[in-house]
Amino acid sequence: MFVRIGSVANLGIETIGVDVEINVANKGLPIFEIVGLAGKSVDESKERVRTAILNSGIEFPRKRIITNLAPADVVKEGSCYDLPIAVGILASIMKFKLPEKSLFFGELSLDGTLRHTKGALLSALYAKEKGIENIYVPKSSANEASIVSGINVFGVENLKQLTGFFLGKTQIQKSDYAESNDTFDKPDFDMSEILGQEQAKRAMEIAASGGHNIILIGSPGSGKTMLAKALPGILPSLEEKESLEVTKIYSASGNIPPEGSIIKTCPFRSPHHTISQIGLIGGGSNAGPGEISLAHRGVLFLDEFPEFPRSVMEAMRQPIEDGLLTISRSRAKAVYPCRFMLVASSNPCPCGYLCHPKKSCICSDREIKKYTKRISGPILDRIDLRVDVPIVESDKFLENTKDIKRENSEEIRKRVVDARNIQRERFRNEAIFTNAEMKNSQIKKYCQLGKEAKNLLNQAVESYNLSARSYFKTIKTARTVADLDKSEDIKLNHIAEALQYRPKTHEI
């Protein structure tokens, strides 16, 4: 008996249809084979499917079973084909009819239950695009798939339940979407907890408002890490389109938890400086996403930036500029968006105490020069704001904090949201969301400079020898400062403030 079942293959965040063709024949030696360019994890489905069917109280047929995954020229990876293969075999031996326009997706446990499987959202999006009415997924993945409206999502607990459903003996209710608030934790710090550092807080507000890259330079204990970890608390929630982009990446990488829902909070990723290039950029045999893609529409915090391997830092050049990354491998190719906000921190020297008011630096000039050159000019040129984070004076943290009113994250966040709303209205007919994403043509269209502001910028170009990229990044930063000031034009003070944050090449 021949059965064809619909499934999918997820290639990055792109999805293609896969026909799972199963032929159960009485003639020939008993065998169970999977063909169609199946990877190791797919080939292992044979034992999972066989054992799951037996442990569901159903006798596995001693017949010649050939499973073909078509198209045969596309590599199939992952455990999501367990369910369609098992359903196809059961339909062959139990003679039940499968519903038309249906898609099956999920991993089996050995006892016949279905496990949470990555990529459920991508499968549901594909089903809606192709007019497929029903999708059967593990129950723990059903809420993720239910994000997509217009299709029937059935959350399946085990093979026995699904078999009874097709035989008309049991019922499986359609899954209704339920939003979850526990996908990401709350920020570790509030801005009100950070003592002093008013200029740094202002720079973080500008960076959050326009999506700008920023580097924090300061001695150990000055508060660089606290500032970075407080940043998510002043970022606005993701727009609907942004939210779907982020959720697709997290679905493809398996980072959506069981019963998880759409991600509305900006991601915050903080990899250790020992991370490999593949871990940061993405790749591997399956062309999976790296930290820069997982930080899409959010924050990528690189603490101790000069300690990252030079090759890893340099690999970020193109992704920072393009906001898109194509990973090509011999057997796989994937495209991932990576429009993130880079937040880096660094000590001023190897010992960390250069220009410290009380501690002496023990580094030689040669050591300091070598340390600062770990961050190349091209990387610094892609950073919009450079902020010095000085050591907080002892009287600041010894004073009675109850008597001092500090601005909290929510108060700053309101200004950031207002600035983002201005940008959303400005770019309503563009394919961008923030000032940092503007191309040169958009800068000319949306960034009008007054005569005084233009003269100051031209003087800065001559004095600091700014590159063309630095020139336009300064204008984009000034545009954000003007938005925070609710000014339609970029004025002299906006350019002046943007210039004071501009990093100089080979200086950290």
UniProtKB/TrEMBL annotation:
SMART domains associated with the record: AAA (SM00382)
Pfam families: ChlI, Mg_chelatase, Mg_chelatase_C
Top-level taxon in the UniProt lineage: Bacteria
AAA+ ATPase domain segment(s): 210-393
GO molecular function, a single term: ATP binding
Stated family: Belongs to the Mg-chelatase subunits D/I family. ComM subfamily.
PANTHER family from the UniProt entry: COMPETENCE PROTEIN COMM, MAGNESIUM-CHELATASE SUBUNIT CHLI
Protein name: Magnesium chelatase
